[in-house]
Each structure stands twice: as structure tokens, then as C-alpha cells.
Write a structure and sequence with these properties.
The chain has 267 residues and is mainly α. The chain folds into 3 domains: 74 residues, Multidrug-efflux Transporter Regulator, Chain: A, Domain 2, CATH 1.10.1660; 58 residues, Multidrug-efflux Transporter Regulator, Chain: A, Domain 2 (Orthogonal Bundle), CATH 1.10.1660; 59 residues. Helices cover 48% and strands 4% of the residues. It contains 9 helices and 4 strands. The strands form 2 sheets. A two-stranded antiparallel ribbon has the order 1-2. The chain has a two-stranded antiparallel ribbon with strand order 3-4. Strand 3 and strand 4 form a beta hairpin. Helix 3 crosses helix 4, helix 5 packs across helix 6 and helix 8 packs antiparallel against helix 9. The radius of gyration is 30 Å and the shape is globular.
């Protein structure tokens, strides 16, 4: 910086610096990270019934008590109306979908899922969300039809003859409820049975599979019996969550054992 001089030659006021230093920058403020998932509306416009209608085709075991239990665990935070009713946003629905998917597909306990969600909320990592892949008929992959089916309607959905479905019912592989209706889980059984039929496996040959499944269900029932005996809504929801988790683990174990046995048949 140069110093100017007055008319009498004495030092005067400092002359303006032709290259002034930029103003001191303000300390950077931490960026506010929007809770996961980003890009979804957080306007609470959906009731519990709306959430169930959207998610139950993919997660048939979802109930109002399960939704309340996930809220108690801090995994989703719906808003409350002045009357105390819960209302969910699109972002809330995606969080519920994530939790249920991690339980079903990766057999993760809620504690681990909660830690993963907390990391996503902090902006750590990335979890894609959005529409699921569609099959050739345009239906989202993995979705089951809502409501109960008849033998004829289930056969039409699976693309098989009604005789095959009726044979599975007669053999006790799938069971019918009041009015002869079959639940949506029967579709998976029919599709697998149809594929096995191409190898000469008839419905009567599948009774052993049903018996093995019933024994596994009995094990799960023993595990959750103490929770089911409690009257608290949270305990009932916890029982449903544990039953789903243990049931998937049983299915995973069964699959691993069958694959190991089949591998031993190779020459």
C-alpha cells in the first residue's frame, strides 16, 4: 500500500490500494442434509389405510399395528392431526417400504435397519428408491394380487389349468378359507408347482413340502408365543415382526439345505 503526501510534502492519508484484498470470507456453514429419501414430498396426505393399500400387495403381512410399531422404533415419524390421527407423506411411505424390504430380502433386524437409515439421513451412502422393475405384463415385479382368489381366478393369474390348482387344494398343498377363497400367497405355490409339473411332479407329490413348511411354522410359533401372549399393541406388532424375520430365516435355511443336497447329486 502506498502513502500519499500533502501539498507541503508531509505524509498525508494512505492512497487507495489498486489491488485491494478480497473481503474476509465468512466461516462455511454445514449444509443441511434432508432426511432420506430425498426428492419425495413430505406433505402428510395419506392415512394408515392409504399406506396399507399401497404397500400390502408387496408386503401382505403389513398391518396397522406393524406401522405403529415401526413408529415406536423411530423408523418412521408420521405427523398427527389435531384429532390425533396419523398422516403419512410419500417420503414416509418410502421409508416404510425400505424397512420392510430389508426385513424380507436381507433378513436384517430392526436395529441394523435403523442404523442404516440413520446413516442415510446423515447423507452417508446411497440407497436408490423409485418404481420397481415391471414384468412383461406391466405389473411391478414381486407384487401379488390383492384380495382372495378362487381356483379359477388363481389359475388365470398363474397361466395354468384350473385342474392343477384344484389338485393342489385336494392334496392339501394349498388350503382354502371360507367360501373356498385362496389367499394371495397361493399364487407363488401354484407357479412353482406348475414348473415342477413339467418334470412330472404331481400335486400329491408335494404333500411332504407342505408338512415340512407346517413344522417350520410351528417352530416360529413357539418363538413368538411369549410376545403373542401379551395384550399390548406394541407387543403384538413386535411378534409379527419377529415371526416374519424368523420365518424368512427358516426359508433361507431350507433353501440352503436343498441346494447342498442337490449339489451332491452332480457326478
Amino acid at each position: 500500500m502506498t502513502v500519499g503526501r500533502a501539498a507541503d510534502g508531509r505524509p498525508g492519508s494512505p492512497a487507495p490500494d489498486p489491488f485491494p484484498a478480497p473481503p474476509e470470507a465468512h466461516p462455511s456453514r454445514p449444509a443441511v442434509v434432508e432426511p432420506w429419501p430425498q426428492g419425495f414430498s413430505r406433505e402428510p396426505t395419506m392415512r394408515i389405510s392409504d399406506v396399507l393399500a399401497e404397500l400390502q400387495p408387496d408386503f401382505p403381512a403389513l398391518t396397522p399395528s406393524k406401522l405403529r410399531f415401526l413408529e415406536e422404533q423411530g423408523l418412521v415419524e408420521p405427523r398427527r392431526t389435531p384429532g390425533g390421527y396419523r398422516q403419512y407423506s410419500r417420503a414416509d411411505v418410502e421409508r416404510v417400504r425400505y424397512v420392510l424390504g430389508q426385513q424380507r430380502d436381507r433378513y436384517l433386524p430392526l436395529r441394523v435397519i435403523g442404523e442404516a437409515l440413520a446413516a442415510l439421513d446423515r447423507g452417508e451412502g446411497h440407497e436408490p428408491v423409485g418404481p420397481r422393475l415391471a414384468t412383461s405384463d406391466g405389473r411391478p415385479a414381486g407384487l401379488r394380487p390383492a384380495g382372495r382368489q378362487t381356483v379359477d381366478s388363481l389359475a388365470e393369474l398363474a397361466g395354468v389349468s384350473p385342474a392343477l390348482v384344484a389338485g393342489l387344494v385336494e392334496a392339501g398343498v394349498i388350503t382354502s378359507g371360507p367360501g373356498g377363497h385362496l389367499d394371495s400367497w397361493a399364487l407363488d405355490v401354484v407357479v412353482a408347482a406348475a414348473a415342477l409339473a413339467e418334470h412330472g411332479v404331481e400335486p400329491r407329490h408335494l404333500r411332504g413340502f407342505r408338512s415340512a413348511a407346517d413344522r417350520q411354522v410351528a417352530v416360529v410359533e413357539q418363538i413368538v408365543a411369549p410376545l403373542r401372549g401379551q395384550r399390548a399393541v406394541a407387543a403384538q406388532a413386535h411378534a409379527a415382526s419377529v415371526a416374519a424375520e424368523v420365518g424368512e430365516l427358516c426359508a433361507r435355511l431350507h433353501t440352503a439345505l436343498v441346494r447342498a443336497g442337490v449339489a451332491g447329486l452332480a457326478p
